Protein 1
Amino acid sequence: MTKIKTALMCLIVGTGLQANAQSMKPVYSDNTRTVEERVTNALSLMTLDEKVALCHAQSKFSSHGVPRLGIPEIWMSDGPHGVREEILWDSWNAAAWTNDSCTAYPALTCLAATFNPELSHAYGVAIGEEARYRRKDILLGPGVNIYRTPMNGRNFEYMGEDPYLASIMVVPYIKGVQQNGVAACVKHFALNNQEEWRGHINVNLSDRALYEIYLPAFKAAVEEGNVWSVMGSYNQLRGEHCCHNDLLLNRILKTDWKFDGAVVSDWGGAHDTKQAALNGLDIEMGSYTNGLSSKAKFGYDNYYLAQPFLQLVKKGEIPLSVVDDKASRVLRLIFRTAMTPDRPYGRFVCPDHSETARKVAEEGIVLLKNDSRFFPVPVGKYKTIAVIGENATRSVTQGGGSSTLKVKYEVSPLDGLIERYGKDHVVYAQGYASGLTSYDREEPAKVDTKALLDAAVAIAKNADVVYFIGGLNKNHFQDAEGGDRKQFNLPFGQDKLIEAILKVNKNVAVILISGNAVAMPWVKEVPAILQAWYLGSEGGHAIANVITGAVNPSGKLPFSFPKKLEDNAAHSFGKLSYPGDSINVFYKEDILVGYRWFDTKKIAPQFAFGYGLSYTTFEYGKITTDKKTYSPDETIKISFTLKNTGKVDGAEAVQVYASQPEASVMRPAKELKAFKKVFLKAGEIKTMELEVKVKDLAFYNETTHQWTVESGEFVLRNAASSVDVKSSASILVK
Ligand code: BGC
């Protein structure tokens, strides 16, 4: 018996099928081997055709495995707020399955507004479980493009304007997803900061802006989050499409950051075989809309990284090492996901997931204004509550482009409020109409807008209080992929409607559902404003809980709300700076994005980054540091007290900003360097302890191409928002 086994082993080794002596399995399918051993072994057994096949799609959302060796295909799904419905093999049409209605989680702007990395982890775990249950290997998210302009139609899919906040929040999301044996796919790398002309617009920006503002969250995703895949973006950087951009993919991502996973193209983001082959793309997806067969004009075999790639390799124009590198990366991804040992089975639409979705929603809602303690409005306070606005009933999980979801359920704000207050106390009027949600197309509503407005004013007149629930939605030219907003003001006549309501009833709260800042011409006249994002399946419950006081709001804005569009940095420099001239866009504000601009240029925002009210009040003690002088490799230990001075329990996201008053280069007035979310009972006092590494006070030096910390004075400030500084402390870096 032993002799036979030994003989068999020799035979297998001799043919390259090295096997584990105990299991007789080839190394690549042996779970006890390391991923690298498995990759090397699998690669050694594959033909050139099989390797090339790994590098491109076989359907809309899947790419090849190695059928001969039993190495499975890769199945992907959007992302980033829920697991998308199944669609057909070769078209975007729904597959009409009955088992694919998911839990919708709040949009990532809301997650960022929680300032709570633990919730980000819970979010990642939950969505990862859903992806796993649905047998997905890659979840196409999270998105971390920086919020540069409120006109960007996709801001809702990202984590705001600050690179530090996004970096801290993205890592636990990725870890949560990947602990399920599902790869996260951080996107869109990089500079996809507008949808207008997204397929080709060439971004021109300084190295400082690139490294200090637009790359850090991706870097954190790779270096701290160990993300297994990255999606290239549609736009160009310095004349090369980002899905095959030598600087971004070869030099920064794969060399500097040592990314060992696979780069996936955005759908249709590849444009050239040589560039795709040589500039770092590993899996080409979505290049044509009907990739049917090798005979069809635009079949999958015609993808840039399919036959054309194979031919160039065969001709010797592309070295074999390039194919091997790509195939290794794809295999690594498969061994980390579909072929990983102990992969959990996942869970789908369960009470735990609803609870996570609700908690994120509740913690992300931001109370922007609350004159005379308008909120909370407990049950029983008013007899008649008028709820006005289309967003009180409209689905916010559908539309928006690729993040659209087919959900198991979605609690609307109106349903949530009726559940709390009782149907006898709530009257509803739509007030305005926006039309149907269509991809890439605007479909204005065909309704009598005056009749809608009149009906709303009529119920407002007789109500004790009005909740206006409006904002943007997921229609084209609103918060949606493929187009930017056309106006900064609220659309569909909402400003006019709010003014009309205010004429008959002053007791009005505005509840905004959006992923973007909007103009607020009525800001002084309404006593209360709530920023409520796209909150997913549990949105209505979360809104009702905050409004009635069951939950004390603790969200903080992850981006600044300008008073007028021109106050926003990108818009201060005219069209070339946004949206560009259709060929190029120039980031003329450089590193002064978001609050960095408002603070440095002393422009008052309408609502500042990091701002958000609570039903309680907090008193900040003076900031102190453990030492006065630090060397560049040390960590500054910061502490101050925080007291809940109000009558209700609540949470506060305390923030620490740093600045360098005298530097050899321009530095922003303030930059976020640490934050912590803390829950305090009424009257409770706690000492906050936060840390800032001295090396994180660096700027990107364009001359030396190094991160540089200059010696000298730095000022650290504890703050409740970017404009609400409580105290400061100076330290010296030697
Ligand atoms: C989007 C990606 C998305 C992909 C697949 C693209 O249009 O930009 O974010 O993951 O489609 O749906």
Protein 2
Amino acid sequence: MASVRNLILVLGDQLSPSISSLVAGDPKRDRVLLAELHDEAIYVRHHKKKIAFLFSAMRHFAKELRALGWVVDYVTLDDPAHQGSFSAQVAHAVAEHRPERIIVTEAGEWRVRQMLEQWPTKLSMPVDILPDERFLCSREDFKAWTEGRKQLRMEYFYREMRRRTGLLMDGDQPAGGKWNLDAQNRKAADADLFMPQPRACAPDTVTQAVLALVEARFADHFGDLEPFWFAVTRADAEAAFREFIDRALPHFGDFQDAMLQGESFLYHAVIAQYLNCGLLDPLRICTEVEAAYRAGKAPLNAAEGFIRQVIGWREYVRGIYWLEMPGYERSNFFGHTRPLPAFYWTADTDMACVKAAVTQTREQAYAHHIQRLMVTGNFAMLAGIDPHEVHEWYLAVYADAYEWVELPNTVGMSQFADGGLLASKPYAASGAYINRMSNYCGSCRYDVKQRTGAAACPFNALYWDFIARHRDRIGNNPRMAQMVRTYDKFPADERQRITDSAAQFLASL
Ligand code: DLZ
Ligand code: SF4
């Protein structure tokens, strides 16, 4: 057998043929290793659909690479050669092939990066860790951008990314004259029989085998395996994205923050799971969205909102993650310690908004950004849930969640546990916000108009109690000071009712 020059390890979220580790290799002399790993499936107990999605996408990617001429060692979870972890699997492959060196593209998570960095010593072998060029802003570039800045606001980073990529630019000016049209993207939606649904792909035989494996091995993990409809190949992910452009993008901006009972997807793209594992390319999808706008097929507020999420927010949170790890994971600005309530797993709650978000999360491994931020996230912060438990929940239950993207969104944006490094104010809201943006409250046992008492929407007393509990921490934030003043104007007996209602509700969790 011909000897192997380089062993190229491809991680489960690196399913791109143009990933730097493969570009650096040679199909004739190098060998690729991809492995379904027990440790990766359980270090948080990932949603069953997420595990099945990734395993099936990995199996299809191995096929894609073989068609391109690569020799691929693919280790399934039930393979006799399965070793359980990245380190053990690579040690096993090194013993078998005796390569000259290992090549790998940098990991997306601190935990895995630590592992890779130990390999030269552990394996007595050179390990080339290459930059992940699928991101438009390298870790070094992001660090350089932060230098000398008092505040790391996404908006300024985003403008630089617009200039750098040329996306939605007319010369050196933003298309349409404004950088950010978010203010136009807050309309409430009405139920509409013709709401587009994301493209559903029927499971092929490869996916069917994975579904059986996941059901057998991870039966006690959260989440429904079926119906399974995610794309698991690049071609199907691209087809799903093109359907989004044709059918949903025109309304994506307007209804970006809306929520409707029984509608899990509204006009969202539902492509983050494809993007974050490498089936879609960030720059390419943005170019296609811009082309749709330039061709008059989508309004500017939709195209700009979409592109901002990808080249602005997504790159920005990754930059923050690498800037702030490893300490960031344990941030707890408010000192919250309450355990995550059981209904985050069971959906067994009378709060219609929370019930809807958790139910669809169980069914789809998906909820859109406002459900995550303003329903489950907002509730957790108001109720004083330990932000680390909240983080592990989001990381486990969403098909698109990897730590680099999920942690800053949870710890920084949604829980304000970093004390305002990332967000300019806590995303705290009472029931009124949810009522304005959704139709959940109409069918809820609680009354969104009442502030206190057993029938009142729990978000209301919890919101005011949160303001009161943390007034010293948030009162000097100009955007929160107004709420503290409003609270102070409540009569003393009303303030007491708020304290009592919040305490009673929390005791019932
Ligand atoms: C999330 C995940 C899961 C569930 N399974 C695997 C796996 O079996 N093999 C693999 O290579 N990667 C998996 N991943 C992704 C990793 O846990 C990790 O999130 C990324 O490699 C980022 O460092
Ligand atoms: Fe949620 Fe309160 Fe509305 Fe019920 S009344 S759906 S708990 S916001």
